[in-house]
UniProtKB/TrEMBL annotation:
Pathway: Purine metabolism; IMP biosynthesis via de novo pathway; N(2)-formyl-N(1)-(5-phospho-D-ribosyl)glycinamide from N(1)-(5-phospho-D-ribosyl)glycinamide (10-formyl THF route): step 1/1. It comes from Idiomarina aquatica. Residues 1-181 form the Formyl transferase N-terminal domain. This is Phosphoribosylglycinamide formyltransferase. It is an enzyme of class 2 (transferase).
């Protein structure tokens, strides 16, 4: 299966998926990595893997609609079976999410439906949560609101900072994202009637 990964930052999840592809743990290949800024560190990591990289700067567009229309064309030019959002810090238009419905995944650093949006680690600390975690979900029009496929939990310890939590969550991200991507590539995972279905079972 052909996978396109969208990033804005470090790209450690992108790299975890790429490594899993190379090792045969994901039945697919990352055919392109697209970033919305040239400074995204993950671009060099992708290039070092021999993956095609693209930068489509949102600053060159007047509106979200105009940017997403171009992004859609760029993604489609790689004819992906699956589009993976891995730290892509953009709110997507309904036009884009509908176009890729059922074939776009996101990873969000909270135990959804808790803490949609940004600053999730600090918000979990402020709330005094004893556990925190990460969710992989299908992308729908609602921000961080699509059906959850898999979550991993981490403990919150006394004295933890947001950075501590982020590091703990990141480890889990690198474990569960390749797993879910592989399920999709194997044809075991689908979005059906607005729900995530794995091996015929509603999740
Ligand atoms: C991750 O924490 C992910 O959950 C969030 O953005 C971050 C991306 O990290 N959506 P990286 O660029 O993959 O290292």
């Amino acid at each position: 299966k052909r996978i396109v990964v969208l990033i804005s930052g470090t790209g450690s999840n992108m790299l975890a998926i790429q490594e899993a592809c190379k090792q045969g743990r994901v039945a697919g290949q990352v055919v392109a990595v697209i970033a919305n800024k040239a400074s995204a560190k993950g671009l060099e990591k992708a290039a070092a893997q021999g993956i095609d990289t693209e930068v489509l700067s949102h600053q060159a567009f007047d509106s979200r609609e105009a940017y997403d229309a171009e992004l859609k064309v760029l993604i489609d030019s790689y004819q992906p079976d699956l589009v993976v959002l891995a730290g892509f810090m953009r709110i997507l238009t309904g036009d884009l999410t509908r176009h890729f419905e059922g074939r776009m995944l996101n990873i969000h650093p909270s135990l959804l439906p808790k803490y949609k949006g940004v600053n999730t680690h600090q918000r979990a600390l402020d709330a005094g949560d004893k556990e925190h975690g990460v969710s992989v979900h299908f992308v729908t029009e609602e921000l961080d609101g699509g059906p959850v496929i898999l979550q991993a939990k981490v403990p919150v310890f006394d004295g933890d900072t947001a950075d501590d939590l982020q590091a703990r969550v990141h480890e889990q991200e690198h474990r569960i994202y390749p797993l879910v991507v592989n399920w999709f590539c194997q044809g075991r995972l689908a979005l059906q009637g607005g729900r995530a279905v794995l091996d015929g079972q509603v999740l």
